[in-house]
Design a protein that fits this description.
Distance between the termini of chain A: 20 Å
Largest sheet of chain B: 2 strands, antiparallel
Largest sheet of chain A: 6 strands, mixed
CATH class of the largest domain in chain A: Alpha Beta
CATH topology of the largest domain in chain A: Rossmann fold
Shape of chain B: globular
Order of helices and strands of chain A: EEEHEEEHHHEHEHEE
CATH superfamily of the largest domain in chain A: P-loop containing nucleotide triphosphate hydrolases
Number of strands of chain A: 10
Helix content of chain A: 25-40%
Number of domains of chain A: 2
Radius of gyration of chain A: 17 Å
Strand order of the largest sheet of chain A: 6-7-8-3-9-10
Helix content of chain B: 55-70%
Shape of chain A: globular
Structural class of chain A: alpha/beta
Number of strands of chain B: 2
Number of helices of chain A: 6
Oligomer: heterodimer
Structural class of chain B: mainly alpha
Order of helices and strands of chain B: HHHHHHEEHHHH
Strand order of the largest sheet of chain B: 1-2
Strand content of chain B: under 5%
Chain lengths: 215, 274
């Protein structure tokens, strides 16, 4: 998969949140986004996922243009902002319900995803009783359960303890090994440097290469 | 392929809706039981015998035309209002809630935004039909318990003084059930579409205001009038409020709301602050 972002600009209520962004990303790589709050990291992720319409430029995946040839990337797994689930149902039930839309995976795949993120698939507790870290893990399970080819993770380490962070790092590297294209935004520069193949520094909607080919 | 995707999405929406709103549905059932008990109590008290049409009239009748004068006071038909407003409360919060609180997780799993919106509208219509079905069933059971007939003896709805003798089953079904369902569907679709842009609370308030205006002004523009049996042309004599006209207006409003919603939703940014 080759994801090309060409001269993408997004203006919201007069404010330029993405300014002439041009990036090229390929499968089997992790692209880290580093920058302050409100710099435009999440907005670029939203644009790639099809949650916002860009004002100028174009986003293509393997030559197919977004909003022309497709609306949402095929094989997309995403975790953007704090995940919210049905509070009166278990983690497994929530994922099972979401998986019904595409019906590409079975219950066993969902169980495996939950185990990968350190959650117990047979846990009878409702997500209402989940801690922030558990919700975050469930959000990551939701992103990876359908074997994504494009994985977009915005602050995946939020609310996680040290073990949880290690598990998520391991998952990210596993998904990379499987050939997924991963876009990762994180405030922790050290973690980002350890994981990413390329890091982009984001400032006021502008993206510049921070490190390239460090790994 | 697209057809299968659509079916799966609709099934997802119906499941999600019931899981998210099961308490609201339980309360809806309690409202129906309350309306049923209150209706048959007053019918048996004032008329001595009960029948299904008279029972339905108690809720679906609404109010006669309000004529503004120095000594008149404006009153909302409480049971008609409660029935409809609760329906809008039940259905109106789901699509926007699912979209924004779920951070678009369902949306990105659909092929297109159009599919997402169509599925949401269909699930809303399904819930409206079930709401009416639940109400009708409650009334039927109430009528059976009270040993009543379907059509009033003598062909006149006693408490309202309305003659239904000579009306065909189709005409009665259309007036009592089909037209109110059409009105609720049109307003429900409008509310759901509005909720995506102005938020579910404001769109619900706008619908309440619209229904109140429908009671105040007996005009075809306020399609809430068509869901009040007292205002339909065969009762009020007002030719502007014919059943056919009502169905057409409902179709136009639902189609227009959907088309405009579709156009705007295609360009909408899904942001958490929305």
């Amino acid at each position: 998969m080759i994801l090309k972002i060409e001269n993408v600009t997004k203006i919201i209520q007069g404010a330029t949140v993405l300014n002439q962004v041009s990036l090229c990303m390929e499968s089997g790589n992790i692209y880290g986004l580093f920058g302050r709050n409100g710099s435009g990291k999440t907005m670029l992720m939203r644009a790639v996922c099809g949650l916002i319409r860009i004002t100028e430029g174009k986003i293509t995946i393997d030559g197919a243009q977004q909003w022309k040839d497709f609306s949402y990337p095929d094989g997309l797994g995403m975790l953007i902002e704090t995940p919210v689930f049905l509070p009166d149902y278990t983690g497994y039930e929530n994922l099972r319900l979401l998986s019904c839309i595409k019906k590409e995976i079975k219950g066993e795949d969902i169980r495996k995803s939950l185990i990968r993120v350190g959650l117990e698939p047979n846990d009878k507790r409702n997500t209402r009783k989940y801690s922030l870290g558990m919700r975050q893990r469930l959000g990551i399970a939701c992103a990876i359960m359908e074997n994504p080819r494009l994985l977009v993770l915005d602050e995946p380490f939020n609310g996680l303890d040290a073990d949880g962070c290690e598990q998520v790092k391991h998952i990210i590297l596993e998904e990379k090994q499987k050939g997924a294209l991963i876009i990762l935004a994180c405030h922790n520069r050290e973690e980002l440097e350890n994981l990413s193949d390329t890091i982009y520094k984001v400032e006021q909607g502008r993206f510049s290469t921070f490190t390239d080919g460090q790994k | 392929m697209k057809y299968r995707n659509m079916i799966r999405l609709i099934l997802y929406d119906i499941r999600y809706f019931f899981r998210q709103n099961r308490w609201k549905w339980l309360f809806a059932f309690m409202i129906h039981v309350f309306l049923c008990i209150r209706t048959f109590h007053s019918i048996l008290f004032y008329a001595g015998s009960s029948d299904l049409l008279s029972a339905l009239w108690q809720t679906m009748g609404g109010a006669r035309e309000y004529l503004l004068s120095s000594d008149s006071s404006f009153q909302l038909p409480a049971y008609w209002f409660l029935f409809h407003i609760y329906l809008f409360f039940l259905i109106g919060f789901y699509p926007a809630g699912e979209l924004y609180s779920g951070n678009g997780q369902a949306l990105v799993r659909t092929r297109t935004r159009a599919m997402w919106l169509i599925s949401k509208c269909i699930s809303v219509v399904v819930n409206i039909v079930l709401y009416y079905g639940c109400f009708l069933l409650t009334m039927l059971i109430g009528n059976l318990v009270c040993g009543g007939t379907v059509i009033p003896r003598g062909g006149i709805i006693g408490l309202a003084g309305i003659r239904v003798a000579g009306k065909s089953v189709t005409e009665l079904l259309t007036a009592f059930i089909f037209l109110p369902v059409c009105v609720s569907t049109a307003l429900g679709v409008m509310q759901v579409v509005l909720s995506l842009f102005v938020g579910p609370v404001l769109s619900f308030m706008l619908n309440i205001a619209y229904m109140t205006a429908s009671v105040f002004w007996m005009k075809p523009f306020f399609i809430g009038n068509y869901s009040m049996l007292y205002r339909q042309s065969w009762v009020s004599g007002n030719t502007n409020l014919s059943v056919t006209g009502g169905i057409l207006r409902c179709l136009v409003l639902a189609s227009l709301s959907f088309a405009v919603g579709m156009l705007l939703f295609q360009k909408k940014d899904i942001l958490p602050e929305s």
